[in-house]
Specification:
single chain, Porin, 452 residues, 18-stranded antiparallel beta barrel, 3 domains, mainly beta, 2 helices, four-stranded antiparallel β-sheet, globular
Length: 452
């Protein structure tokens, strides 16, 4: 399996204007289900066999989810257990345990509705909820370390499950990304994601059970297929995604086992070769690799600490007339004459020649950064000391130590993961860059980050 080092996070995906998924219906399961197990597979071209990508087990009691156990192996092995706690029929808290840490999300109610979600170990991380006069969710405001990072606005309600959802993300108090979604009867119909660098439009179609069977991204269409038990629970599925290595569609297969309250069972998590052959007719092999690329908690903790350290910086910058600037280091000493600076459409990347550090301020060349005010900068850490940038002329450039390199030496090659690209230097595959179309600056990683 191709491995790109990244830190996975647990997220809640809203199918309707609600705070968190916690009922059988939220997981598209019938009320009689007490346990739902599934395994996901896809064909790994490097192994020339099918790879177990993830497993998930959902436990339920009288239509309410009590625990979810997940193991995933997409790029880095991760495992997590979410335990749901209820009081008087209301979701009181969710306890999450991963290799990295454990924490509890608590829910605060007012008049039977959730008005706040907070974490026990990070009090500055919380979400505040507001409602309109009809009781519909109207707004969410998300804080991290007591700093606003996201605002979600719900409007244009036709019914409680038909509305417009607009998400605004912030970086250093500057609006960084906007996403607009249209829901009809609880199902996402279309969305538009807008950043400073790109706009992406997507749309969706569903079967009678509410599972997505058509996904359109710009001018590309992906089809999926589902098979059900007599109660509408998914037993087998094929979900198609695009493979950047082969420039072809690749199918992800999921097989599920359903246990009902009367003890009866339907389906199986076993890899069904005959089902797979209906869609993948030309695979070199139908053998399966069930092993995960496990990683220790210590390795994951170090990765998290390295990420946190990379975002910390004592550098500050002040903008003056004509987009000139003054920069101070962590000791408060002026270093303006000791740095190299490269600009994109909106951001500035600065290289401290003396201490060999690269630091960034997003939005420096926008009105959000005020003249005469000081702003904290982020320190970027790259194992190659190289970065890519969309310049102020919307061209792609390569930077090393604050200097633009000869871009004719570099060529981008698409990978299996969307928006990730291999970089060829003088015709040789040497680096990988991530999220090309959604960021203005990012790191060059060694090619080992892509392959075992």
């Amino acid at each position: 399996m191709k491995n790109i080092f990244f830190l996975a996070v647990l997220v809640s995906i809203f199918s309707s204007a609600q705070i968190v998924k916690h009922t059988a219906a939220d997981f598209k399961l019938s009320p009689e289900v007490t346990k739902y197990e599934e395994q996901e597979f896809y064909y790994e071209f490097g192994l020339k066999k099918y790879q177990l990508a993830s497993t998930r087990t959902v436990y339920l009691n009288k239509g309410l989810v009590t625990k979810v156990e997940t193991k995933s192996n997409y790029f880095l092995y991760m495992e997590a257990t979410n335990t749901y706690n209820y009081k008087n029929g209301l979701l009181e808290s969710i306890y999450t345990k991963t290799q990295l840490s454990d924490y509890t999300e608590n829910f605060v109610y007012k008049n039977g509705k959730i008005v706040e979600k907070n974490q026990d170990k990070t009090p500055g991380n919380k979400t505040i909820y507001a409602y309109d006069k009809k009781g519909n969710l109207s707004e969410e405001t998300v804080f991290e370390n007591n700093k606003k990072v996201k605002r979600i606005i719900y409007s244009n309600y036709i019914s409680p499950n038909s509305y417009l959802k607009k998400t605004i993300k912030y970086h250093n108090d500057v609006e960084d990304e906007t996403n607009e979604q249209i829901y009809v009867k609880g199902l996402l119909q279309s969305e538009k994601n807008i950043t400073q660098y790109s706009t992406l439009v997507e749309s969706y179609q569903y079967d009678t059970y509410g599972n997505q069977i058509v996904y359109k991204r710009d001018d590309k269409t992906y089809n999926s297929s589902f098979e059900y038990d007599s109660k509408g629970n998914v037993l087998r599925s094929k979900i198609t995604q695009f493979d950047f290595d082969t420039q072809e569609d690749i199918n992800h297969f999921t097989f599920a086992k359903v246990t009902y309250s009367d003890g009866k069972i339907a389906g199986s998590t076993t890899f069904d070769t005959n089902y797979v052959k209906r869609f993948d007719t030309n695979s070199a092999s139908y053998n399966v690799n069930f092993s995960f690329n496990a990683v220790s908690a210590e390795e994951l903790t170090k990765a998290m600490n390295d990420l946190e350290a990379s975002l910390s910086s004592g550098y500050t910058i002040k903008k003056s007339e004509g987009n000139t600037y003054t920069i101070k280091d962590a000791n408060g000493e002026g270093i303006t004459n000791d740095v190299n600076a490269v600009r994109s459409n909106y951001d500035i990347l600065v290289y401290d020649i003396l201490f060999k550090k690269s630091i960034l301020l997003k939005g420096f060349y926008t009105d959000a950064v005020k003249i005469g005010e000081w702003y904290k900068m982020e320190e970027l850490v790259s194992p190659t000391n190289m970065y890519w940038i969309f310049s102020d002329t919307s061209e792609f450039f390569v930077i090393q130590n604050g200097t633009l390199l000869d871009k004719s030496l570099y060529q981008l090659v698409k990978t299996q993961k969307e928006d990730d690209f291999i970089v060829r230097e003088a015709g040789i595959d040497k680096y990988i860059i991530r999220d090309l179309n959604s960021k203005g600056f990012e790191t060059f990683y060694p090619l080992e980050f892509l392959n075992d």
